[in-house]
Amino acid sequence: MTPQSKKWMRRVAKPWRLVFVGYVLAMTLATHWPSLELGTEAQPAPDKILHMLAFGGFALLLWRTRWLGAAWMAGPVAIAWAALDEVTQALPILQRTFSWQDMFASGLGVLLAVVWIWALGAIGGPANRARLAFGAYVLGDQFVRLRTWIVGLAAAGIGAVVMALVMWMLLGRAFGFPYYSVLATLIVAGVLGAVAATHLTLAAMYRRQASALKGRQPCFECGGSCCDVAFDEFGRGRCPSCDARIHRGQWREPMDLPLTAALRGAGSAALTAIGLFFVAVFIYGIVLGLSDRLTVAGHLLHLWQRLTPDMQVALDLAGIALILGVAVRVYRFRQAQLHDRQHVQCRCCHHDLRGTPLEGGLGRCGECGTPFVRFPHQPQAVSRRD
Length: 386
Hints:
The protein has a domain at 1-119. Helix 2 packs across helix 4, helix 2 (47-64) packs parallel to helix 10 and helix 5 (126-143) packs across helix 10. 62% of the residues lie in helices and 3% in strands. By secondary structure, the chain is mainly α.
């Protein structure tokens, strides 16, 4: 890695590192506050759900710091920190207790974070990975600006409050739901509302930032300008600052897939999610039905019944999140296939493009005029690092 690339990586990672350090300090203070009790004996707080969300967030932020060599390493490091955090709570001076269920809920959150890191990770061939590199560069360039964090946090707060209020009106005391169920639902609804509002807000900012990149043509490795690079007949070139491989088509703003193609991908993901859900229900039914006949099934059911209510809810939510993570990966895989075949078949009208003339790796569909890029069929054609 060249000095220019290292400088760019540090610049992009610095905000995440600051946020991560602040998050860890705040979380550690909350988990080690002496004699801290959430809720009351009559109205307990969904402590296990909070553990799952807190350490899932820990793993995600640790991944974004780029301190680790590989994304999967965020899992073991977060598990080790969760264990240390839980064990040190048993120190007599803190007047708190160690809980295996708390530790299991924390590990469950880390597992979900790792699954979603995998679900949203790099996938596909040169064309799709160039599209992902484009998006990663835009997001990295966005988050080095304080304005992005302020707007994102404001959107998250508004989304959380609005969604929580909606769920309160739907599942409030007027419908006879117990306090515990309502509180757990409000927490989950608030998180979902925050994620949705932040995503929509940042997506609008992303589109403006992506359009501005067309003229700058930055290298995705070091951020240096590539406007004066001479490309060969296949559209290949080298960054003048860090000598990374670049392609003429990597700055083409990623195009949304046609609605029919997007729906096909969404359909595959939905069928996958439904199939996994019914498999889970089927396995649970088998365990329930054989609990009187098989010792193992009986032990599993007995173990489930011994869990606290918030731990049972946390496991239910984790199962749903795992299924959705796999479904998202399937959907992105379908998208990657379409983008990687954009030079073979038009994504809009399905016209055969194999005989279409190219200029520097770029071309247009002769039927509908949709632009496409043909990347050289070699590994790492766009970037030396995925």
